[in-house]
Amino acid sequence: MDTPIQFQIHTGSAEPIYRQLMEQLRRRVAAGQWKAGQELPSVRELAGLLAVHPMTISKAYGLLETEGLLQRRRGLSMVIAAGHERPAPKAQRIEQLRPALERVAAEAHELAIPKQQVLDLLGKLLDNPGSPR
Amino acid sequence: MSSFLTLDWWRAPRRSATPEAGLALHASAPSDTRLPVAVQGLRLGYAKNHAPVLTGLDWTLQAGQVVGLLGRNGAGKTTLLEALLGLRDPQAGAVQLFGQPAAQIDDAVRARIGYVPQQSDLFEGLNARQLLAYFRSFYPRWNEAKVEGLLSRWEVPQDQLIGKLSGGQQQRLSIIRALAHEPDLLVLDEPVASLDPLGRRDFLRELVEQVLDRGTTVVLSTHILSDLERVAFNVAFLKDGRIRLQAPLDELIEQCRWLQGPGAEDHGGELLARFGPRLLVRAPCLSGLPRETLVQLVTLEDLFEGLA
């Protein structure tokens, strides 16, 4: 059973919506959750679902196609490109996580929270990912 | 008919009954390359002794653009949108709608424009059904299926006097009225102020559908930034009577930074705003800044703070 392809966006962010979509797709594909051949919602469907301008969606899809993560099939539908059948090597996935952790480290410094307490909290969050943020 | 002369044109959007206007519209619309909106040197004030609201404003909307108009309260957004539709006489400057002077647009151009005013308080003595029948009589084209669909989806009571409807219901009705004749240009002045979050989301979806199906040009003023961020691919900031800046929102968020501290003044980019020691800079040369310079990303709210 494939993991369904669903996107979530946050407004008020310093990350533009098209980038949020790209990053979510990169992470899911690297994790091997969204796999080669899986079909993405059409621009129309996703624009309607998220209530965002269709050009935002097509921009994200277009850039991901250029990167080789998406492939345009006959007709207009997009699928996850071939070569993404299994999870990316762990080292590569860790690299993808680095920017987020760098932000956490910077904010922990700003808040003057000791290292061990940050690690404890991160550990708790990892054990219990469903907890409210 | 004479009483119509005292009404703004959008309340009675046809000078005369010419069925040809509708035919001409269908024949010419697809190949039309004229700009939906072109404003040049627009100057408008309300009283002699007061500073003018618009001070030589230039603005262009390309076909198919969705532009969010941002500005502080009292910046003149409503005045601008009204002048843009030819509902106010400017002291100087020119507005063209689809190539025609805004004050003299013909029926064919009127039929291509949909307008949701901030307040539409004239039709309180009619019910929704009567109001829509009234407007329907003016337009060569009218999408009855869409009207019926939206009326039931948005739960607008059809047999109650409009004056008795809630603010949100009146606003929904006003939006339905503006979409019914499938306009090529939609001018929306705070269209969602009285809608709840679900109503707003549904409205945004409808707007996205219009853009997808018809390539509608949209100008939308609202203070609800999260809505704007979703649907407005472009944003325009109105300040001091002019359009201070218009650009794709993605681009602005990616190019702009807050800078503060040593070296901030030598940013090498375009200074957009200054708040004491904090600078809002577009496209700064980050590699040229010393390590001690504080560099922060921006959100749409930051841009509003700096530019509106």
Description:
The complex is a heterodimer of chains A (133) and B (308). With 133 residues, chain A is mostly helical. Helix content of chain A is 53%, strand content 5%. Chain A folds into 2 domains: 17-80, Arc Repressor Mutant, subunit A (Orthogonal Bundle); 90-127, no CATH class. Chain A has a two-stranded antiparallel ribbon with strand order 1-2. In chain A, β1 (70-72) and β2 form a beta hairpin. Chain B is an alpha/beta fold and 308 residues long. Chain B has 2 domains: 2-240, P-loop containing nucleotide triphosphate hydrolases (Rossmann fold, 3-Layer(aba) Sandwich); 249-307, no CATH class. Chain B is built from 10 helices and 14 strands. A 6-stranded mixed beta sheet of chain B has the order 6-7-8-3-9-10, sandwiched between helices. In chain B, α5 runs antiparallel to α6 (167-180). Chain B starts with 18 loop residues before the first helix and ends with a helix. Residues 18-30 of chain B have low confidence and may be disordered. Chain A binds chain B through residues 9, 11-19, 44, 47-48, 50-56, 59, and chain B through 66, 201, 204-205, 208-209, 211-212, 225-226, 229-233, 249-250, 253-254, 297-301.
Order of helices and strands of chain B: HEEEHEEHEHHHEHEHEEHEEEEH
Compute the gyration radius of chain B: what is it? 21 Å
Count of discrete structural domains of chain A: 2
Termini gap of chain B: 43 Å
pLDDT averaged residue by residue of chain B = 90
Sequence of strands across the biggest β-sheet of chain B: 6-7-8-3-9-10
- Please identify, by name, the CATH architecture of the largest domain in chain B: 3-Layer(aba) Sandwich
* Number of continuous helical runs of chain B: 10
- The proportion of residues in beta strands of chain A is under 5%
Through-space gap between termini of chain A: 29 Å
Report the structural category of chain B.
alpha/beta
> What is the CATH fold-level name of the largest domain in chain B?
Rossmann fold
Report Rg of chain A: 17 Å
In the CATH hierarchy, what is the superfamily of the largest domain in chain B? P-loop containing nucleotide triphosphate hydrolases
Order of helices and strands of chain A: HHHEEHH
Runs of chain A in which pLDDT lies below 50 for 5 or more consecutive residues are none
Average the pLDDT over all residues of chain A and give the rounded result: 91
The CATH class of the largest domain in chain B:
Alpha Beta
